[in-house]
Amino acid sequence: MDATLQSGPNWNLLRTFYAIAAEQSITKAARRLGVSQPSVSASLQRLEAQLKCQLVYRDSRHFALTQQGGQIYHECRAMFRGAERIAQAVRGAPVGESGEVRYQIISNLASPMLDEILRLYHQRHPSVTFQSEVQNSQNIVRSVRQGRVNIGICLLAQPPSGLCAIRLFREEFHLFCGAEHPLFGRASVSVEDVEREPFISFACATEGAGLEPMSILRSGMRLGSHIAGLSTNMEEVRRMIAAGLGIGILPLMSAEGDIQAGALWPLKITDEPIGANVYLAHAEASALTPPEAAFVNIVQELIALYPDMT
Question: Percent of the chain, pLDDT > 70?
């Protein structure tokens, strides 16, 4: 038997591969590990040479784990989380006292509940660090399903099937126009008034992202036949609406400052509120690290204590 395989692959090479698989990018893995991109690429090549199999399909536009790569990633995840628990036991540290909580979240999500979750968590576990990444809801659900991240905060029309999910609160939306738009200041408008107006859309809502509720809200009001602008970033959508490029849907809470400043105007079409629920989607309890498990527990605790916040 090959001596390398008998003794097992190098621990550092496995850690580098774990970062590559978790980030789905050699560049992001290098940033996470604090090393150069060529160093990460070379480590991946050495590990593939040791294991005598390809772990990653990669080119300039696509990245995916091979079947063997996916299996090794799941083994690495269990191994490194076990090592973290051993280290905590040796130090005698209480569960969740130190470590890291990584999560993905939709952009521009304004919420007193989320603020309180972070405040209370830091108060109880001041040594834990947080790392957040902004993604759209479809990508967040996919990342949690594939184990690239264990916690995601996303906006969904319904709970994600097959995933653990906690409803945090309901996000209310309105249709808005900017100060230069002819409908600015109108007390109410009809569907006919707005259905042919240039529309500012989230980019993911135009790419078949069925999990993104903005596409559902848009189609429900027969909007968006003419797209005048699109972005994956909510702030850029807000900017284009305020600049008068077209009308668009925004969360009410994040737009309140612009409403008061006279930069945006909510267009009232119907008395029926439009919105979607914000969920915390997370991996099974057995897959959560101690800091991640503590995070989920605090979320459940706050929902039980303050149901009005939801």
Answer: 80
